[in-house]
Amino acid sequence: MTFYDIARYFSGFDAAGLAVMLTTWFWIGWRIENPHPDRPSVSVLMNGYRREWMRQMVTRQPRIFDSQVVGLMRQGTAFFASATMLAIGGGLALIGNLALLQDVASDLSLGAAPEIVWEIKLVLIIAFLANAFLKFVWSHRLFGYCAILVAAVPNDPEDPVAFPRAAQAAEVSITAARSFNKAMRATYFSLAATAWLLGPVPLLIAALATVTMLYRREFSSRSRLIMLETPENTQS
Length: 236
Description:
This protein is an all-alpha fold. It is 80% helix and 0% strand.
């Protein structure tokens, strides 16, 4: 089966839905990581809190709390990495047994399409999941590096290396969080991509709904307003 034979099974709406899906995925990632200075995203605000955390860590004795926080972040990334790996396995297994999916499609009156159509739609979902998995794994490793840098910060706050080493730990933590956030966005869009199994219009709606949700959480959520408050403004 040639490319043109496959293409005739997809309409212009399919191409439009796929284009919107990929465009919104790239755009929201860029917008979150490169916001206007007057309107920072939650992710950018958290970077400042991470740097402040490491500055406070230098004078905190003992540093059990800090090590626990880093450990919890590693556990979170490990959990999501395992979950995406299982989802990838499920997707590959479904590709190997498309008869089940075709039966469901028939029950839902979605029409009879050749196996290659369902395979392409499933590959899009698996591609998002694979992207998320790789970023989760890298984030997990970076949080491990951060833990080692935290342990390398001298106990004496007067040590000239203490604050520079803490700043290094903060930047590695920020890099790890950036990879984690990218992985989460890919996971969200993998869920949206499942709407393509229902057709191009559901795919378009799911893509727009996903990017709207991510934008609201990063730029219009209650949690963002709390992060923007200064201690003076929170006192009653």
